[in-house]
Amino acid sequence: MITKESDTGQLSGIGSDLFAHSKQAKFTARRGLALELFPFIFGAGQRMSARAISDYLAKKDGVKLSAVTINKALKAAHKNWNLYFDEIEPVAKIFSKAEKMPLRGFLFQKQYFYDSAKYPAMVKAMAKLLLSDQIIYASQVLRSKWFNIDWEIRLKAMPYLEHRLGEIK
After folding, report:
1. What 3-state class would DSSP assign to 27?
2. Separation of alpha carbons 112 and 128, rounded Å
3. Cα 72 from Cα 66, distance rounded (Å)
4. Which of 52, 56, 74, 161 could form an SS bridge with 48, CB 3.0 to 4.6 Å?
């Protein structure tokens, strides 16, 4: 055991060994994983403990995310919703401008891109809008990162994003 009185050189050697090992070891860091999964963690956190979420992710999908990390994410919900929305907002503004609809107008609809039989007018509007590469990209991001989040979770996110949902001029 190393104490305060230990030689600084010994600690430096331990640190060097650790760093050298990290270069050879399998890459395990998944920075940003909690943020990528945040909307789903937020939703699950309404009914499950952080430990239960962590255990589920590890057993079901092999995703290692500690209960401590999950708790930190949930306690900083305002910050994490805003960080998550940083990726959504630019494409949402592109789509909002093209549709001449406020952000709130389509981001918090139950469904926007899906069920063409139920929303034939929207499908026609999408076909017209999809002529632009920007719109194609925006719709792909919105589908994969926003509209795949359960509607109830998106509604619960609204108060955290209220200051960012102003109308496009």
Report:
1. coil
2. 15
3. 10
4. 52
Identity of the residue numbered 6: S
Rounded distance between C-alpha atoms, residue 13 and residue 19, angstroms: 10
- Greater pLDDT, 101 or 4: 101
Tokens describing residue 116: 């063409």
CA distance 166 to 34: 27
- Sequence length of the chain is 169
How far apart CA 91 and CA 135 sit, in angstroms, is 8
Query: Could you tell me how far CA 74 lies from the centroid of its own chain?
Result: 13
Residue with structure tokens 């001029």? 169
Nearest to 96 by CA among 83, 86, 105, 108: 105
Share of the chain above pLDDT 90, in %: 38
Residues 160 and 79 sit within 8 Å (Cβ to Cβ): no
